[in-house]
């Protein structure tokens, strides 16, 4: 069984400066929880209770959030504020959360490689903190099931408009007997629309076989001078490599996804998630309609 999740969280968050000058971008609130907590909760919902977070310098707020805070908990307990106490304690009891430093930021592939000692020789999941998947969508559980059934690496794919494909890794695919599963025959990092092999974008969920570590060790820096996970998966997906590392398959996802790495999508995520909540939605939805009508 796959039980381990790796969450890279060592980025500098430059798109959200100055907010991220002192606060890790993964700790920016989405309504009333840090974005990273949504990702850990998604991992736990898919039965991944061993979580490794790859952090960088000045990211101590992340480890603090997933630790107990006895003073605050005592204060809330004394005030009989059971609701807030439960919210505070949830993050420290969600999963067995570990941390490792990436050192210098050398790309997503390098961040994943830093998980090798913790993961060992087991398949594992990688969840990017910028992508929030709607609660109850079951994407990660489906990917794990495909990975276990086929003994393969699995990536999450989503069809995007042609004018957006240059923002993503892009997959060349072949259909399989399962309507939502494709075989990945090639991967290209952020191609132009004219040269993209498809409109299937790689979004921030992966279930990887441990053989990916050996491939990453030999992967030279690619786009941006960084070690790209896409480049390593391209090697595994290449014709003939299925016998070595199981190949790469994709689960095509069409559910709710929020890109909190983009400022506009970050605001959209807050509005959408807040308006869907029972405690906030009834007051927020009429205001949104009124505000939209005034534009």
Care to describe what's here?
The protein is α/β, with parallel strands linked by helices and 295 residues long. The protein has two domains: 4-261, Spore Coat Polysaccharide Biosynthesis Protein SpsA, Chain A; 262-295, no CATH class. Helices cover 36% and strands 23% of the residues. It has twelve helices and 13 strands. It has a five-stranded mixed barrel. A hairpin with a 5-residue loop joins strand 9 (169-175) and strand 10 (181-189). Helix 3 runs antiparallel to helix 4. The longest helix is centred in the C-terminal third of the chain and has 14 residues, at 281-294. It is globular.
Annotation keywords:
two-stranded antiparallel sheet; 5-stranded mixed β-barrel; alpha/beta; single chain; 2 domains; Spore Coat Polysaccharide Biosynthesis Protein SpsA, Chain A; 295 residues; 23% strand
Topology (elements, then pairings):
Layout lengths: L3 E6 L19 E2 L2 E2 H11 L4 E6 L4 H6 L4 H9 L3 H12 L2 E6 L6 H6 L2 H4 L4 E4 L3 E3 L5 H12 L2 E7 L9 E7 L5 E9 L10 E9 L3 H6 L11 H9 L4 H4 L2 E5 L4 E3 L3 H13 L5 H14 L1
Parallel strand pairs: 1-4, 1-6, 4-5, 8-12
Antiparallel strand pairs: 2-3, 6-11, 7-13, 8-11, 9-10, 9-11, 10-12
Helix pairs in contact: 3-4
């Amino acid at each position: 069984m796959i039980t381990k999740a790796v969450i890279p969280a060592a980025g500098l968050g430059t798109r959200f400066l100055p907010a991220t000058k002192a606060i890790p971008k993964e700790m920016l609130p989405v309504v009333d929880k840090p974005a990273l907590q949504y990702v850990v909760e998604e991992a736990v919902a898919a039965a991944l209770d061993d979580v490794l977070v790859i952090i960088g310098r000045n990211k101590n707020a992340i480890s603090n959030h997933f630790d107990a805070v006895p003073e605050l908990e005592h204060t809330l307990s004394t005030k009989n504020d059971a609701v807030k106490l439960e919210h505070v304690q949830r993050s420290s009891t969600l999963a067995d959360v570990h941390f490792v430093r990436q050192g210098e930021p050398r790309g997503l592939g390098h961040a994943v490689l830093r998980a090798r000692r913790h993961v060992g020789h087991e398949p594992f999941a990688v969840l990017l903190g910028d992508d929030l998947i709607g609660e109850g969508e079951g994407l990660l559980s489906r990917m794990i099931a495909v990975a276990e059934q086929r003994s393969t690496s699995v990536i999450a794919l989503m069809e995007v408009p042609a004018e957006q494909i240059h923002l993503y890794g892009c997959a060349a695919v072949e259909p399989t007997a399962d309507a939502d599963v494709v075989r990945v025959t090639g991967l290209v990092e952020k191609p132009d629309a004219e040269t993209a092999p498809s409109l299937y974008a790689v979004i921030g969920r992966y279930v990887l076989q441990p053989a990916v570590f050996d491939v990453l060790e030999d992967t030279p820096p690619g786009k941006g001078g960084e070690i790209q996970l896409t480049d390593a998966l391209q090697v595994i997906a290449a014709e003939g490599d299925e016998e070595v590392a199981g190949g790469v398959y994709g689960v095509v996802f069409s559910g709710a996804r929020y890109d909190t790495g983009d400022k506009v999508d970050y605001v959209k995520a807050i509005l959408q998630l807040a308006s869907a909540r029972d405690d906030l939605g009834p007051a927020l939805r009429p205001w949104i309609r009124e505000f939209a009508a005034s534009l």
